[in-house]
Description:
The chain is built from 9 helices and 10 strands. It has helices spanning about 15-25, 40-50, 70-80, 105-125, 135-145, 160-170, 185-190, 220-235, 235-250, and strands spanning about 5-10, 30-35, 55-60, 90-95, 130, 150-155, 175, 200, 205-210, 215. Helix 3 runs parallel beside helix 4 (about 105-125). An 8-stranded parallel β-sheet has the order 1-2-3-4-5-6-7-8. It is about 45% helix and about 15% strand. It is α/β, with parallel strands linked by helices. It has one domain: Alpha-Beta Barrel (TIM Barrel), CATH 3.20.20.
Amino acid sequence: MKLFxxxxxxxxxxxxxxxxxxxxxxxxDKILIAGLDLDSNRxxxxxxxxxxxxxxxxxxxxxPYRPQKDTFKEVYxxxxxxxxxxVAIGExxxxxxxxxxxxxxxxxxxxxxxxxxQLALAQxxxxxxxVHSREAWNDxxxxxxxxxxxxxxxxxxxxxxxxxxxxxxxxxxxxxSPAIEYSKQAQxxxxxxPNDRILLETDSPVRYRPPSGSYICEPKDVIKTLEKLSELKxxxxxxxxxxxxxxxxxxxxxxx
Length: 256
């Protein structure tokens, strides 16, 4: 069995060697590491270049959490510089839970400016996009639809099912995290999406809070995502692992 953790922030983890060793022991074959801002993009590039004994893949982008306009051009330059290395642009998108973006105004406008620019770069360099869409699901959908991109991943989708239907109708993907163990919204989304349109992730090092007890995740915990998804979908986990692994490689244009 081979697993692909399609979303992790290894730059936020201290013991990277230990994390990768445990991931390998848990049959994780590939990990995508994503940037969030100028500093973290530089950090994940450094990690990607320094690790030679694990299948790491790179995504660069600007997360909607307090985007810093004075760094936009530097991040876009990094994306262009590494356009032949990255397998996606992201993590990018919109998030209306943040104080400055709860209502229409400059906060939302800045998020949309960054998101729109990254969608344009994805179009220019023919890259998939990893979309963060918390409480902004419809606006994210409308913006990616207008961008005419064909490969769009709604990361850790927990939004309304009617918007999910629109997302799926366009051929886009969703990913599920270990939150599927206890999140009703994540479970409903996973049940509605076709098996071959779901990717597995951890979003490491997020803290998850299942009934069995909270923990800070790492890529090895993608097996938790798989096991719960297998239970919900009533499909053998080895078969589901194969489906999601193939879908992940296809989505990110990775030849295994």
